[in-house]
Amino acid sequence: MTGSDASLEFSINRVAAMVRRYWYLLRSSWPRILDLIYWPAVQMLMWGFLQLYVSQNSSFFAQAGGVFIGAVLLWDILFRGQLGFSISFLEEMYARNLGNLMMSPLRPVEFVAALMIMSLVRLLIGMIPVSLLAIAFFGFNLWSFGFALAAFFANLILTSWAIGIFVAGLLLRNGLGAESMAWTIMFLFLPLTCVYYPVEVLPHWLQYFAWALPPTYVFEGMRALLIDHVFRADLMLQAFAFNGLLFALAAFAFLKLLSSARVQGSLLQGGE
């Protein structure tokens, strides 16, 4: 057998070597391991709670027209706001430009401000057409919320930016090994923020965690507006208070992770 023929043979050793490579990458990156676990858990929890609530309230659909469409649109503000922030940040990592940015006169707060603006731009480009399609196909007018929509939007975008800032810090410290967190971290909050069902559906002990998340107040406020035709200003104020705390914690974590990235030299690596 010639050398060229031998190179075409199937090699268990080469396969095992590649498996070991991927295993080492997975084992060394806790975000990848978390990604494997929480996707099935989030899906199970969200649809399980929704099924429980609908089965307990047979008149729900007749009473709450538009609740699900409104929830989907508001959830998209939360999710797309964070994703737009993270994508802009990831573009710098893909271009291996973070080291250059951090050595330039650009300050971290200026960098974050630019990312927030781009998040808003990306969000508006996506949401405006979708909201118009909701009117055309389902007769649901999100813009009819008026001042309530402004309060909902402000709280959701603040939460999305806080999460985006924290994810940016994780990416700085862990490199692209934490990339999956940018795409999926928001879904960790999907069951607990009660997007499609009220807080009382959750077990009593879990409700404390739900009320600690600002989006929970927004979705409860949306249901109060659509079902009871009441704008809950108290819920919005509480959401703003929790958003302030969340934003401060995210900024603190970002600065600490940035400092650690500088010490470890990961700003110039940016790989796995």
Structure summary:
This protein has twelve helices and no strands. The protein has 272 residues and is an all-alpha fold.
Tally of discrete structural domains: 1
- Largest sheet entry: none
Estimated share of beta-strand residues = under 5%
**Could you spell the SSE succession in H and E letters?**
HHHHHHHHHHHH
Distance between the termini: 39 Å
Shape call: globular
Q: Mean pLDDT, nearest integer?
A: 82
> What's the alpha carbon Rg, rounded to whole Å?
22 Å
User: How many H/I helical runs?
Assistant: 12
Task: Give the helix proportion (percent range).
Answer: over 70%
Poorly predicted residue ranges: 1-7
Number of E-state strands: 0
Class computed from helices, strands and strand pairing:
mainly alpha
Explain how this protein is built.
The protein has 272 residues and is mostly helical. It has one domain (30-264). It contains twelve helices and no strands.
List keywords for this structure.
single chain, about 270 residues, mainly alpha, 12 helices
Ordered list of secondary-structure elements with their pairings:
Blueprint: H1 3-7, H2 12-27, H3 30-56, H4 60-63, H5 67-94, H6 98-103, H7 108-138, H8 147-174, H9 179-184, H10 204-210, H11 214-228, H12 233-264
Helix pairs in contact: 5-7, 5-8, 5-11, 8-11, 8-12, 11-12
